[in-house]
Design goal:
This protein has helices at about 5-10, 150-155, 195-205, 235-250, 260-265, 310-315, 320-330; strands at about 15, 30-35, 40-45, 60, 65, 70-75, 80-85, 95-100, 115-120, 120-130, 140-145, 180-185, 210-215, 230-235, 255, 275-280, 295-300, 335, 340-345. The protein folds into 2 domains: about 5-65 and about 170-345, QueA-like (3-Layer(aba) Sandwich); about 70-155, Thrombin, subunit H (Beta Barrel). Strand 7 (about 80-85) and strand 8 form a beta hairpin. It is α/β, with parallel strands linked by helices and about 350 residues long.
Length: about 350
Amino acid sequence: MSRGAEAIAVPGPVVPAAVPPEARGLARDGVRLMIAGPGRIAHARFHDLPEYLAPGDLLVMNTSATLAAAVDGARDRRPVTVHLSTELPDGKWAVELRPGRRADGPLREVSPGDTIELPAGRLHVVEAYPDADATPSRLWRCRLVVPCPVPAYLARHGRPIAYDYVPDDWPLASYQTVFGREPGSAEMPSAARPFTHELVTELATRGVTVAPIRLHTGVSSLEAGEAPLPEPYLVPATTARLVEDTRRHGGRVVAVGTTVTRALETVAGPDGHVAVGEGWTDLVLGPNRPARVVDGLITGWHAPGASHLQLLEAVAGADIVAAAYESARSAGYLWHEFGDSALLLP
């Protein structure tokens, strides 16, 4: 009998990683790696990843780089932390406001027309996002008024988004992956953080191909039961062809993270054909929409109750995901963006 997301959502003794692995005396690829498949759980280190992939497999990774998307502001002279989540097609921003630097939840007492003072700029609250009629709302559609392009403004005045389980400030470089090239993510596509240039080279010498997509991810602080928000993505022609060729020749398509999975599955037809695609995806994977082209998934450990868990189940199946999470809790794996990893291979 399938245990499903309900079993995973039960609170357990999860331990968040409070500092990057480098501050714990580890290399990026020295974090723990669980390999989970049908009836199998194995434990290794991330640098052992090539042992669990085969010539002809395809790794698909995200080239989005992380913005310093947290900015100190003030509302009615009271401190507010502004999390810039996603730039919207009309040039406005989806924004989360928090009452302080390490608040454990969003600021709820927000109204359209509010103004947030920023360093050398300001933020005007327009309406709730994505539902303009929602009251209260966690995110808001806002007009950002700053004296230069947003990436340059954030490079000067911003810092990486961080939550209360990471008590210290870490430089933006700690929140970048080796694949990040195009700034746009509010938070790091963290499944790729343990990769190093040396590990990518080792994978290539063993016949594992690496291909890019781009998906700029918004804030990850979705509340339990909250569906993923629309995000901008690009699946280039070369990657679409590589996915098709890999599947045709019996290789596995392994997504590096939920962002990659969402992008690839957005452009996957019912027959598994993958097309070139660019735009905004509102795809939600789960029991009613299983994965069509992603055969395996590299992922970090998501908080119990997170919506990402349904996506993991759509790829690997409920039993494998539940067994992996039970083993991770009992074995003391570290959670969140600086934590340990899993390779799910159904």
